[in-house]
Amino acid sequence: MLGSMLLLALLSAPTPAPGPKPVVELPFRVVLDAGHGGTNGGCHTEDGAIHEKDVTLALALDVQRELRQRLPHADIVLTRNEDQTLALADRVASANAGAADVFVSLHANASPNHDQTGFETFVLDAQASSTEAALIARRENAGEQSSPATGGAVPQAQAMVEQLRATAHRGAAIALAQAIQREQGARFPARADRGVRQASFDVLLGVRMPAVLFEAGFLDHDGDQRVLVEEQQRQRVAEGIAAALVEHYRRTSRGTLRAD
Ligand SMILES: [Zn+2]
């Protein structure tokens, strides 16, 4: 009796009106790496009052908040949520252990004569695109603690293996780097776009997914410093990174799947 009533109810249920099918978003896990932290302050403003480690954390939190609004289903993880010393291996492990889809390391810059300005995005390559790019990588690498297991710089043989692995994701990393530069340029047309460059950053070695390192600006340059420190401006930087990550998601997941 109950069965036939149920059948009747099902048969008499109105057919759903044709319309757009519900969209199913694919899983998307982003790791945002706030560069430096704890005893490793990174670079700083000329007066030494503001350290890179604080700027990168603030920016990472801004990007996380912005991306959660744009892609509510995404899992957005930070390598650190506070002022904490992290080994390079910990940053890489956060990404690999959770099988993340993309890794973005956030940094700020400083130049020897305090006269450089602008934003740039790096992808991993053994060959630096310029002497200056190599110097930036050397400065960033020097500040980071290596894995206790390797006891120093990443061994050359391991580095070569990791470089080869990274080539599988090179196209996606370059496309993401280009999108980050484009989105920054659209929001800050007066700032110098230093372009997509390549260098051997230890933090990008061993990350088994598309990975980029964003240098948001020069902390020892007055104009750049304002962009990085003033909340409203930094929020716009974060919006640009989030927009580029949404573009990366749409491109790599081929848009969205429709439920049938
Ligand atoms: Zn840095």
Q: Could you give the topology of this structure?
A:
Layout: H1 2-12, E1 23-24, E2 29-34, H2 52-70, E3 75-78, H3 88-97, E4 102-109, E5 119-124, H4 131-143, H5 156-167, H6 170-187, E6 193-199, E7 211-218, H7 222-229, H8 231-252, E8 257-258
Alpha-carbon distance between the termini? 32 Å
CATH superfamily: Zn-dependent exopeptidases
| SSE succession | HEEHEHEEHHHEEHHE
Average pLDDT metric = 86
- How large is the count of helical segments? 8
The first-level CATH class is given as: Alpha Beta
> Which bin fits the share of residues in helices?
40-55%
CATH architecture: 3-Layer(aba) Sandwich
Largest sheet report? 6 strands, mixed
Task: Please give a structural write-up.
Strand 2, helix 2 (52-70) and strand 3 form a beta-alpha-beta unit. The longest helix is centred in the C-terminal third of the chain and has 22 residues, at 231-252. The protein has 260 residues and is of the alpha/beta class. The chain has a single domain (24-255), classed as 3-Layer(aba) Sandwich (Aminopeptidase), CATH 3.40.630.40. The model is unreliable at 147-152 (pLDDT under 50). It is globular, with a radius of gyration of 22 Å. It is built from 8 helices and 8 strands, in the order H-E-E-H-E-H-E-E-H-H-H-E-E-H-H-E. Helix 2 (52-70) packs across helix 8 (231-252) and helix 6 (170-187) runs antiparallel to helix 8. It has a 6-stranded mixed sheet with strand order 3-2-4-7-5-6, sandwiched between helices. Strands 1-8 form a two-stranded antiparallel sheet. The chain binds zinc ion (ZN). Zinc ion is lined by residues 35-36, 42, 52, 107, 140.
